[in-house]
Structure formats: structure tokens, C-alpha cells
Amino acid sequence: MTFLRLFYNLCFPVVLVMMLPSILLRMVRRGNYRHKFGQRFGMYSRRVLDKLSGHRWTWVHAVSVGEVMIALKLIEAVRERQPDLRVVLSTTTSTGYRLAHRRKSPFLEPIYTPLDIPGVVARALNAAQPDRLILVEAEVWPNMMAAAKKRGLPVILINARLSPRSERRYRIIRPWAAALFNQLDALCAQEPADARRWERLGVRKEKIRMTGSVKFDPAREGLGPPPRDLRPILENLGVSVSAPVLLGGSTFEGEEVILAECLRDLRAHIPGLFLILVPRHAERAASLHARLSDMGFQVALRQGGEPVNAPEILLVNTTGELKDWYAQATVVFMGKSLTARGGQNPAEAIAAGRPVLFGPNMRNFASLARQMTESGGAIVVPDAQALRSAVEELLGDPVRRETMAAAAATCLNVHRGATARTIAVLEEFP
User: Fold this and answer.
1) How far apart are CA 289 and CA 269, in angstroms?
2) What is the tens place of the pLDDT at every residue in 181-237?
3) Could you say which of 67, 191, 255, 348 is catalytic?
4) Is position 235 annotated as part of the catalytic site?
5) Can you tell me whether residue 172 is helix, strand or coil?
């Protein structure tokens, strides 16, 4: 493992330099790229250092918004049992940081993930002095792992998922992957299929715990802060309570235009139909607004922008509100599934009791998507025409909408109690 990590440390700076232009471009697009930039090199302000000193902290690492939401859900549940828990929550993206920062408290300090370079990692760990390291889903960095183990810290990977595609990639470097993941003290798998894939990579069976997905755990729904009532926003835009609402959740490039064209076609015989677009990356809102306006639509922005008379579309340019907006939808389309690959998490839409549509590219949530479609809890729409037909059918059939929502809800039951099972694993490493 030492030789492999040496090889990694020789290659990592080269790869980082090669990827730097695209990384910087993405950071600029997402905004606030200079915000706390030094934290990415393990350099922290005096305020952060003073806050971290003198207390025991648990370090939780979550790469972006979706993982941060899982982390916050778990942290909240753990604090119900351990009120004195203090957490350093690291995240890689500015959107993830903003979401974590909203929950900042004396017991929670959000930071940016340090680069996985030995000196940088050591500086970050010296500042935080954590007593354990909890990684969310698949974020295992070799130098961070090695530094934590050298300090005798327990390292637990929660909500671990391993897609067939990722397994194929890891199998190319199976000895190295097995050595890396076997440094974990515990690996909490989402589903039996995930557990089998981890085993095939060489992870020792006794390290793998079947917990289910914290993300999909319906037992935790309703125990956190209740969804905000966003209906007044729609009323201020002139959208009546009886108006049907189509919502595109976590959409990617191209999907917003498809949904807008669907809106145009259907409004001819479904008066009052309203479209809410929540793009996966809020920084795309400005260009999306211009594109949709050029198409002839009246588009209102969630925050900022000029007042719009009788808008047809609400473009949400904020982060962390998607769960709240699901409650206002009649039908939901899950993004990154039609023009992009991977899919987005349908669990919150299911929990809100809304019927779900998605494209054929849901590999990041393949098991749940398959269960939903087989049980009648979702409709797969392979193209724009199929999307239009499915939306039209569901808007005209409230019984079908209720049946779909109920069927989808049963698909989450396998994960019921996943949060409690995950906490039980964490308590083995206090």
C-alpha cells in the first residue's frame, strides 16, 4: 500500500494540473470561487481555529449538495442521542458549502475539503483534531485515509454505493482498491447488491454492514425541520391553488427546454398549467432565463430579477429548496435522466407524495428506479414526446397519480430504519 500511495502522490499533482483549467472554469461558473480558498490548502481563519480548539470533533466529509443533505440528516439524528456531538463538515463544492453553512452552529462548522496532498491533509487534521472520520457515499481519498489511520482514527464509509460501472473501473486496479477500502473500519452498504460488489472488489466481509440508505430512509421524514410553505410565492405570481404544476427537479442542460416545450404544447388544452424549474446547478439560472425568454416564455426568478406579468415559468435560482418545492408540484420530472446520465434522487419527491417521471438514464439510482417502474411507482419517458404524453395523462387522472405515489412509497420501505442502523455502526467507534 505504501508503494501504491507513493505512485498516487506522484501522479496526483500531474492530474490536478491537467484538470486545473476545467476545475477553475467550473468554480467560476458556480460562483464564490475565491470564498475561503485557503481552506482547500488546510489554512483556516483565527475564528475557525479558535472554535475548533479545546473540543472533540467528528469529521464528516460530503462532496456536494446531495451528500451534504445526507450528512445533515445523519448529524441531526445522532445529536438527538448525543447532544454534545460536534461536527466538522467538509464539502468540495461552493453549493454544498452554502447548504452546510445555513446549518452552522456552535456544534457544526462547515469547511472546504482540503486537497488530498499529504502536507495539506496533515495541516487540516492538525487544525480539527478529529476523533473519527465519517465519509459519505464514495468519497475515499488515499492521503486523507492514510493520515487518519496513522493517527489511530476510526474511518467509516456510510451510505456506500458502488454502481456496476464503478465496480468495472475499480476492478482494473483491484489490488490497490482492495488495499484502500480495507483500511476502513466499517463500510455501510445501501443494498445487498452494493455489498456483493464491494466484496468482489476484495473488501473483507466483516467490514461490510447492510444498513440501507440514509438518503432513502422514510422513518426520518417529518422528524427534521418541516418543509417550508412556498405556496405564497406562487400566489404572488398569480398561480391559483387549483392550477396544475409540472416541476423539473435537479435538471441538466437541455432538459429545461424540453420541459418548456412540453408546457407550450399542453397549455393549449390544460389552461393554467405552470412550470417550476429547479436546475441542478443554480449558477445556470441566468443563461437559462435568457434562453427561455428568447423562446417567448414569461419567466420569473425565485430571487432577484424584474417583476414579470403573468409568468408561465418559475426558475428557481436558489440552493437547498428543492424538497420544499416538491410539495407544490402535481407531477415531477427527475433531471439528469433524459439529456444527461446518472439521474437524480427521487426519494424526496416520493416522500412528498408526488408521481415521478424520469428518463432512461438513472444509473446512479438504478435499483430504486427499477423497483419504482416495476411496481408502477414511476414512468420512464425515453424522449420528449413520451414525456409530453405521460404528463398529459397524469394531469388528467388524479387516481393514477395517487396510485403511483403510493406504489413508489413502498419502494422506500426497504430503507426504513437505515439512519438508526447507521448510527448503531457509528456507536461501535465512539
Assistant:
1) 25
2) 999 999 999 988 899 999 999 999 999 999 999 988 877 654 456 678 999 999 999
3) 67
4) no
5) helix
d(CA 407, CA 412): 10
| Domains of the chain in sequence order | 34-224+416-426 (3.40.50.11720), 231-411 (3.40.50.2000)
**What burial class does residue 414 get, using C-beta atoms within 10 Å of its C-beta: 0-12 exposed, 13-18 middle, 19+ buried?**
middle
DSSP 338: S
pTM of the model: 0.79
Number of H helices, E strands in the chain: 18, 14
Give the integer Cα–Cα distance in Å for 320 and 297: 25
Residue 121 CA to residue 42 CA, distance in Å, equals 7
pLDDT band at 22 (very low <50, low <70, confident <90, very high): low
Give which of 154, 92, 151 is closest to 126, Cα–Cα. 151
Q: Is the pLDDT confidence value at 34 over 70?
A: no
- 193, with CB counted inside 10 A (0-12, 13-18, 19+), is middle
The terminus-to-terminus CA distance of the chain in angstroms comes to 27
**In sequence order, which residues have a C-beta less than 8 Å from that of residue 181 and are 6 or more positions away?**
140, 157, 187, 198, 201, 202, 203
Q: Are 343 and 380 in contact (CB under 8 A)?
A: no
Please list the residues that pair with 132 across neighbouring strands: 58
Q: Are 71 and 96 in contact (CB under 8 A)?
A: no
The Cα angle at residue 43 between residues 42 and 47, in degrees rounded to 5: 125
| pLDDT score recorded for residue 300 | 96
Q: Quick: pLDDT tens for 121-165.
A: 999 999 999 999 999 997 788 999 999 999 999 999 999 988 888
Q: With beta carbons less than 8 A apart as the criterion, state whether 308 and 300 touch.
A: yes
- Strand ranges inside 181-222, DSSP E: 186-189, 208-210
At a CB cut-off of 8 Å and minimum separation 6, what does 146 contact?
5, 183
pLDDT interval class at 20 (50, 70, 90) = low
Residue among 321, 311, 230, 305 nearest 275 (CA)? 311
**Does residue 377 carry a pLDDT above 90?**
yes
The pLDDT value given to residue 289 = 96
DSSP state of 335: S
